[in-house]
């Protein structure tokens, strides 16, 4: 049973981390470049809307899952025969923690400041609001896209190594 839990936890960590990495990647290569082409009002309004709707259960399960499931996967691989797997999982955890830190220290405060700016129809200087938000948010989103994608890669490699160590039932 422990062997099955070992695999299930690692697979769940891979899935949650992949979902988060994919989200940040999509913002980096499509959403933000697309929004870069719209006027200030459309930009502020759209980002405020996105920031409101992203705070939902599905996002939170994946986002929280990156740390909780990766930590759980690490606990299942503490024995000496799985050092390579453990190393990959611990590295993935550190990269996911970096992603979390960037999100909480940079992106969330920027999102909150954008929301606090108020209704785009009532903002006197939309260009200034956008200027304080866009470049910094985009830059740090790219960093968290890289850290979360690297974490995903580490977890995928951990699965490969785990498959080489023993079968599913152990």
UniProtKB/TrEMBL annotation:
<protein>
    <submittedName>
        <fullName>Membrane protein</fullName>
    </submittedName>
</protein>
<keyword id="KW-0472">Membrane</keyword>
<dbReference type="InterPro" id="IPR013901">
    <property type="entry name" value="Anthrone_oxy"/>
</dbReference>
<feature type="transmembrane region" description="Helical">
    <location>
        <begin position="7"/>
        <end position="35"/>
    </location>
</feature>
<feature type="transmembrane region" description="Helical">
    <location>
        <begin position="85"/>
        <end position="106"/>
    </location>
</feature>
<keyword id="KW-0812">Transmembrane</keyword>
<dbReference type="Pfam" id="PF08592">
    <property type="entry name" value="Anthrone_oxy"/>
</dbReference>
<feature type="transmembrane region" description="Helical">
    <location>
        <begin position="55"/>
        <end position="78"/>
    </location>
</feature>
<keyword id="KW-1133">Transmembrane helix</keyword>
<feature type="transmembrane region" description="Helical">
    <location>
        <begin position="142"/>
        <end position="162"/>
    </location>
</feature>
